Write the structure tokens for this entry.
Amino acid sequence: MKVPLLDLKQQYATIKEEIRKVTEEIYASQYFILGPQVERLEKQVAEYCQAEYAVGVSSGSDALIIALMVAGIGAQDLVLTTPYSFFATAGAIARVGARPVFADIDPGTYNLAPVEIEQAIENLSADEKARLKGIIPVHLYGQCAEMDPVLQIAARHGLVVIEDAAQAIGSEYKGRRAGSIGDFGCFSFFPSKNLGAFGDGGIVTTSSEKLYDGLKIFRNHGAAPKYYHRFIGGNFRLDALQAGIVSVKLKYLDNWSRARQANAENYRKLFADAGLEQIELPLSIQDRHIYNQFVIRVAHKRNDLRQHLQQSGIGSEVYYPVPLHLQECFKFLGYGQGDFPVSEAAADQTLALPIYPELTDDQQAYVVDSIKKYFS
């Protein structure tokens, strides 16, 4: 049996006529950059995420960059975030000239641990504390970070809060949607996301009219009005084609999220029935975990298990094998092996299994049976 990590072809088969219709409308209009399709999606996403505003941008990575720019964060500033995330989280900080400051994660959720945030700030010098301007909590794998402590810490230190919600559209924390909790919410429409485009795309949410106005200006080279520049922005515009496609898919997102949640519960039952005590299953502690990934933990020989699954026709992935503080490009930050042991252990021991909505019970049973055979 073949079980891919993700099967977007099945998803496309169910919506292809709607996709063709909206793309044909865009071809006929010849309106490809921003315009009514983007404006429609912005209103839909703002409402879905319980935010006042949304601004479509060119990618999830650019969503982080533009949020930092609009927040006025740049050279000599510091921004605190996690070392266990996709590269763009820290890369965006460096791209605007600021310096990432890392804090370790919670071993169960893999999100920033509030106690580690406090410790990381305490370890800064007085000058560094004065230059600390923001914090980027990541809602990793589809589950919100502990946002109340994050907001309290940010308020005490005067920090901007930028939610990296690239993997978490529709997830909730105490009844609040990801992207509506901090000053900014940054989302990705990369094709593998729960709500994916047919290429790159992203969106930024905010409930501040001032920040909203800034986002619109900065995404178009800082021009307002056209050809008049008070700011140096960027080309962060969202394509109309991607907006139209995402708008179609947004209607189905809640159903797809429920299917992912059902698959997660089925995995839990299958693992329990198989007696696989060697496997640590992901925790679900927040209101609404939307399972962009189903990440198990294997204390020993994770890579051997992954190779066994590959030989069995089962897709898996390691997110992320090298923590950000150990990436070669961040050597200048001065971190080393052992500085963030929880993140380093997660990088060495975690493995993502297929969790996509169209996954069948038989496929899930085969995945768990294959893991059981490996440990036998």
